[in-house]
Amino acid sequence: MPLWIPITIAAAFLQNLRSSLQRQLKGRMGSTGATFARFGFGFPFAVLYLLALHRIGGLAMPAPNPAFLLAVTVGGVAQVLATFLLVYLFAFRNFMVGTAYSKTEPVQAAIFGLILLGETVTWLAFAAILAGAFGVALISVAGRGDVKIGKALFSREAGIGILSGALFGVSAVCFRGASLSLDDGGVLIRAATTLVFATGIQTLVMLAWMLLRDPLELAAVARAWRPALLVGLVGVTGSAGWFTAMTLEKVAYVRALGQIELVFTFASSVFWFREKIARLELVGCLVIAASLITLLGAAS
To answer: Can you tell me the distance from the alpha carbon of 268 to that of 4, in angstroms, rounded to the nearest whole number?
Structure first.
C-alpha cells in the first residue's frame, strides 16, 4: 500500500476530531476565535515537530526560495479564509452538513492542480471524485423537507461551503507546490518546513486582524486557552499528515481520499453530538465510500 494512503486516512480522522473540538469552541468565542485557535495554538507544535526532525532525526533543513515563499503565503491565507467560512457554517446547519458543504474541494483541487501545477488525473479517478461530490450533494440536501435539490444547492449555506471548498483546494495545491519547490531534504522535512511557514503566516495574519478589528475576540481566545490548545495540537498533527501526503501524491487524490472524513463525521454526529441522521445522508455516505474504493483502484 502506498504510504500516502494511511497517512491521509489518519489526517482525515484528526481533521474530523479538530472540527468537533472547534465546534465546541463556538460556544465560548466567535468564528474568528475558533479559526485562530487552529493556527495560533498549533504553530508552536509545528515548530517543535520541525526541530525534532532536524535535531533528533538528523534531517537537513531545506532553504526557502521565492517560489516557496509565494506559494506558502497564498496557501496560508486561502486556508485561513476557508477555515473561517467552514466554522461560520456551523451556525446554519448541523455539524454533519456544515462539514459536507466544503467537500466539493477534491473536484476543485483537481482543477486547480491542473491549472497551477499541470497535474492530471485519470478519467476513472476523476469520475470517482465526481461521484464523491455527488455523495456530498446528497448529504447537503438531506433533511431539508420538500426543498428541491437545485434550490438547496444554490442556498446561502451551499454558496459559503462551495467557496470554502475552493479556498481549501487552492491552499492544498499551493502547499504541495511549496513543498515540491524546496530543493533539499526528504519528504518529511520539506512537508514540516511548509507546515511551519504556513501556520506562522496564518498566526500573524489572524493575530493582526483581531488586534485591529476584534480585540474582545482575542480576549475570549485567551480565556479559553486550554481547549484551544487541544484544538491547535490536534489540528497541526492532522496538518502534518496532510502536508506529508500531498508532498507524496497529487492533491486531487489525497483530498478525494480525505473524504473518508465524512464517515468519521457521520459517526461523530450520531455518537458524540447525538444528532439525527436522515436516510439520504446515509445514502450519501455510501456513495462516498464507493467512490473512495474506486479512487484507490484508479490511483494504484
So the answer is: 24
* Band (89; pLDDT cuts 50, 70, 90): confident
Please answer whether residues 250 and 119 qualify as being in contact, where contact means their C-beta atoms are separated by less than 8 angstroms: yes
Q: Is the separation of the CB atoms in 113 and 251 below 8 Å? A: yes
Rounded to an integer, what distance in angstroms lies between the CA atom of residue 73 and that of residue 200? 10
Decide if pLDDT at 142 tops 70: no
User: What's the pTM value of the predicted model, to 2 decimals?
Assistant: 0.85
C-alpha closest to that of 162 among 109, 102, 106: 102
CB 242 within 8 A of CB 178: no
**What is the Cα Rg of the chain in Å?**
18
CB 85 within 8 A of CB 167: yes
Calpha distance 224→220 (Å, rounded): 6
Name the residue with cell 492544498: 172
